[in-house]
Specification:
The structure is a homodimer of 220-residue chains. The first copy, chain A, has 7 helices and no strands. The first copy, chain A, has 220 residues and is mainly α. The first copy, chain A, has a single domain, classed as Methane Monooxygenase Hydroxylase, Chain G, domain 1 (Up-down Bundle), CATH 1.20.58.220. In chain A, helix 1 packs parallel to helix 4 and helix 3 runs antiparallel to helix 4.
Chain lengths: 220, 220
C-alpha cells in the first residue's frame, strides 16, 4: 500500500515542477522581449513575478508541514530539504528574469545597439540548464545533474565574451555606453540564472548519491 | 533538565554565527582592499572562500542530522529549517565578497578612477545589515529584523546613485569605461549582499512570528 507520505512527496514534486515551468517561461519571455523588442511582453514578465512568489511561499509551507507531520527519515527527509532549497533557487531565477525584463524596458527606449547573438545563446543554455536540473531531480538522475554543472562553464565563457565585446563597443562609441551597460548587466543576470541551475543540479547529485559535489569538495 | 536537542540547537546557532563572522570579515576586507588599494588583502579574501564553503557543508549536514535524529516539532523545526536557509544566504554573501575582491584586483592594475565615497558607504550599510540580521536571529528579535529589511531601500538608492555617477564618468571620459564598469559591478555585488541580508531578516520574522513577510505578502 502506498504511504500517505509518498502521495505528499509526489504532490510536492509536482508543485515544484509547476513553479519551474513558470520560471522557465519568464526567462524565455524576457529574452524574447529583448530580442524582438516587444515592451508588452517584458511588462508581462514583470507582472508574472507575483504568482511565482506565492508559489514559493506555498512550497516552503508544504515542506515544513510534511517534515512536522511525517517525521520523514533518510531519503525522504533529504528529498524534502532539497525541495526546500530548490524552491528558493527557482524563486531567485524568477527574480532574475524580472530584472532582465526591467532592463529590456530601459533598452527599448533607445534604438538597437547591435544585433544580439551571444546573449540569446547564453539564455538558451541557461534555460536548458534550469529545465535539465529539474528533469534530473524528477528522474533522480545524477548523470544528467552533473552534465548541468559542466555547462555552467559555457555560460561563463559566453558572458566573458559578451562583456569584452560590449567594452569594445563603448570604447569605440561613447553614445553606446548606457545601452552597453544594460546589456552587460543582462549578461550577469543570465550568468546568475545558470549559477542557480548549477546549485539545483548539485543538490540533485547530493539527493541521489548522498554526497556533496558542492564547491568540488568530493571532486568529479 | 535540558534536552539534548537544546544543546544541539545552541551548537547550530554558534556554528552559524561563526560562519557569519567569517563572511562579514570577507566583506570588510574586500572593501578595505578596494579603498586602500591593497592587492594582498584582496588576494586574502579570494582564498578565504574555502573555509566558508566547508562551513556551509558542515552546517547543512548538521541540520539534516538534527532533523532526522530528533524529529523536532513546531518552533524547533522552524529554527532548523531557517538555519538551513540562512546558511545558504551566508555562503552566497561570501561568494559576493570574493567577486568584489576579484574586481578589486582588476581595478588595482589601473590608476585610481576617482575617490570612492558611495561604494564604501553602501558596504558599511550592507555589512551592518548582515550583522544585524544575525543578531536578530540570535535574539529572536522581529523588530530588529524588520529594521534590516527597511535598510535595503537605502542600499538600492546608493547603488542607483553610484550607477548614474559612473555612467556620467564614462560619458565624459571614455578612458574611464573599463574601471567604471568594474565599479558598477561592485555596486551590484553590494546590492546583492544587502538582498541576502534582507532574506535572512525575513526568515527571522517568520521564525519569531510564524508568518512570512516575504514579498510583502503579509504587509508591514
Amino acid at each position: 500500500m502506498e504511504r500517505h507520505l509518498d502521495v505528499e512527496l509526489r504532490h510536492l514534486q509536482e508543485r515544484l515542477l509547476t513553479m519551474a515551468s513558470l520560471v522557465e517561461g519568464s526567462i524565455g519571455r524576457a529574452i524574447h522581449a529583448l530580442v524582438s523588442r516587444e515592451a508588452p511582453l517584458a511588462q508581462q514578465v514583470v507582472h508574472s513575478d507575483e504568482p511565482i512568489n506565492m508559489a514559493e511561499i506555498d512550497i516552503d509551507e508544504l515542506c515544513l508541514k510534511m517534515t512536522a507531520l511525517y517525521h520523514p527519515e533518510a531519503t525522504d527527509l533529504r528529498f524534502i530539504m532539497m525541495a526546500f532549497k530548490i524552491n528558493n533557487d527557482l524563486e531567485r531565477i524568477g527574480d532574475l528574469a524580472v530584472n532582465i525584463a526591467e532592463r529590456t524596458l530601459e533598452l527599448l527606449k533607445e534604438p538597437l545597439l547591435k544585433p544580439l547573438i551571444d546573449i540569446p545563446r547564453m539564455a538558451t543554455v541557461a534555460q536548458g540548464m534550469v529545465k535539465d536540473s529539474l528533469d534530473a531531480f524528477v528522474k533522480r538522475d545524477a548523470e544528467l545533474a552533473r552534465a548541468v554543472c559542466r555547462r555552467d562553464d559555457e555560460v561563463d565563457r559566453l558572458n566573458d565574451q559578451v562583456f569584452r565585446e560590449l567594452l569594445t563597443c563603448m570604447l569605440q562609441d561613447p553614445r553606446s555606453i548606457e545601452r552597453a551597460v544594460e546589456l552587460i548587466l543582462i549578461g550577469r543576470h543570465l550568468e546568475r540564472i545558470a549559477d542557480h541551475a548549477t546549485n539545483i543540479a548539485e543538490d540533485v547529485v547530493y539527493l541521489v548519491q548522498g554526497r556533496t559535489i558542492k564547491h568540488h569538495v568530493a571532486g568529479e
